[in-house]
Each structure stands twice: as C-alpha cells, then as structure tokens.
Write a structure and sequence with these properties.
The chain is mainly alpha-helical. It has one domain. About 90% of the residues lie in helices and about 0% in strands. Helix 1 runs antiparallel to helix 2 and helix 2 runs antiparallel to helix 3. The longest helix has about 35 residues. It is elongated and about 55 Å long.
Length: about 140
C-alpha cells in the first residue's frame, strides 16, 4: 500500500479509536445524559462523513486490490451508518424522549447494530494498518 493510503487508513483508525475510547466515554461521564445525547447526535453527523471520506480516499489510492476492497467496504459502512442508521437512531431517541416505550427496544437493537458495524470497521482498519506497517 502506498504512503498516502496508509496515512489515510491510519488517520481513520486513530480517529475511530479516539472517538470510541476517549471522546464518547468522556462526553457521557462529564455531561448530563440529555446534553450528552445531543452532543453525540451532532458529533455523529460529522464523524460518519469524515470517516467515509478518509476511507474512501484511501480505497481510491491503495494499490493492492484486497486493501482497496476492504477500505471500500469500510467506507460503504460509514455511508450506510450515516444515511440509514443515524437518522433512524435519532428518530427512535426522539420517540423515547417523548415517552414511547416501544421505541426503547427498537433503539437498543439498532444501536447494537451500529456498534457491531463500528467494531467490524475498526477491526478491518486495524488489519489494513497492521498489514501496512509490516510491509
């Protein structure tokens, strides 16, 4: 993989790690739950497009086919999360706040899907970055 693709993949991996393991826990630990939820809603509106751009650009310039394909899949995951999951999670959060008890279960399931997707993307980026460093 060339230097630019490796740098972009490493930036996405580092960004995901920092957001998941530092920013999100800090926000929920330091802000009241309602403010933390609003903050994270706004953060995800930026996070997904930025991560999609980084991984999409990396996929376009990554020479080995398998690397480009993996980065492309990660990019597609970010786009799907941004365009499909995020709006539905936000809608369910609003319904929860309005007292809709049924929205709680649907929110938990969809949030779990979102977390599983994020973990899968994180692991794929780890593999790509690790393979880059070892070559």
């Amino acid at each position: 993989m060339n230097t630019l693709a490796g740098l972009l993949a490493a930036l996405a991996f580092g960004g995901m790690g920092f957001f998941s393991f530092v920013t999100a826990p800090l926000v929920f630990a330091k802000l009241p739950m309602e403010q933390a939820g609003r903050f994270m809603r706004e953060a995800f509106a930026i996070y997904y497009p930025v991560m999609a751009a980084l991984t999409g650009l990396a996929a376009m310039v990554a020479p080995p086919f398998w690397t480009a394909a993996l980065l492309g899949l990660v990019c597609i995951g970010f786009l799907l999360a941004h365009l499909l999951l995020r709006p539905e999670v936000n809608r369910l959060m609003d319904q929860k706040a309005a007292g809709d008890v049924e929205a709680i279960g649907r929110f938990r399931r969809l949030h779990g899907v979102s977390q599983a997707l994020n973990l899968a993307q994180f692991l794929v980026l780890f593999l790509v970055v690790f393979a880059t460093v070892n070559h």
